[in-house]
Amino acid sequence: VSQSASKLPSKILELMDGFRASKALFVASKLKIFDHLKDKGPIKAVDIANGVGTSVCGTERLLDACASLGLLEKTPQGYSNNDSANTYLTSDGKYSLHGYIIHSNDHLWPLFTNLEYAVKEGSRQNHRAFGKKADDLFKDYYHSQEVKQRFMAAMHSIAHLTARDVATAFDLSQFKSACDLGGCTGALAYELVQVYPNLKVTVFDLPEVIANTSFFQPSEQHTAPVTFVSGDFFKDDLPEADLYILSRVLHDWPDEKIHVLLSKISALCKPGCAILLAEMVLDDEKKNRSTALLQSLNMLVQTEGKERSGSEYQALLEQHGFTNVKIRITGNLLDVILCVKT
Ligand code: SAM
User: Fold this and answer.
1) Is the Cα torsion angle 64, 66, 69, 72 positive or negative in sign?
2) 248 CB less than 6 Å from ligand 1?
3) 85-109 confidence digits (pLDDT tens)
4) What's the domain range around 281?
């Protein structure tokens, strides 16, 4: 008996196609098709193929798939970017996701290919995906300039999407100095000094990252300056600050390493100093938001960490004397937790 269309398992069918759709987006981004179409009228498939150096028959199918997914407009005159493609898919806009898309294609895709092993073994899969595994995932990222640049571009692009909501989830105007631990390219730091012009922000990250941050400085230099300091937050002295920020840092690590870091921060904090966490905060039953639960799988395939619930973060923080834990679910990709040393 054949199924009637109304009874089709549409959710499952959509997920079976999910990887094909993701790959179509990734390949169109890699080929810079959205850059090619930027600020131009409709262009025919043959001209796009000639422009980006690909086959006409393959390009036409890729373009049609992208148009059907809402990534491009298709008219009888040809293909053009829609507003969303211009903002998020071209490689040079402030809110471009190009860096994260390339990271997804080149790095996360091979890791997710090994998800089955990650689930069976409960550990990250760098060795299977890339032939080697360092003892710390960031050593895997920073062993080559190319992989490091790609990772930093990915963090930079996704941080731009969340920085304003992270900076404004709580009123931080009582703090005079902040240190963004693992602050990478400074994307959040530059947003913070715009929102709080009197706040002095220091970005602390590994030397390999700090050496590479000049690529990512904002072009408009009317914002207050941000200071960059290099070091290892597990081993080296941390800069002094009233507010310590950990954005997408704790999810990289198991509880034991988080305790090392939080106890170092706690030892530096006077009463009234605070920690601001930015993470995808899970609900206590870990039922909600597939984005966050899929991100936890993303942590499984490449880190020793995971996404945690609000109560789990609260318990970690309270063990180090941080109380008055407040959680804001922002509706953006990152939620925000503020707590104070008492
Ligand atoms: N905070 C940024 C954001 O939200 O976009 C970047 C998050 S990224 C997932 C984690 C950051 O922690 C990277 O920039 C990485 O270099 C940094 N990091 C990892 N281990 C570190 C260490 N031992 N000391 C200092 N920074 C470290």
Assistant:
1) negative
2) yes
3) 999 999 998 899 999 999 999 999 9
4) 163-341
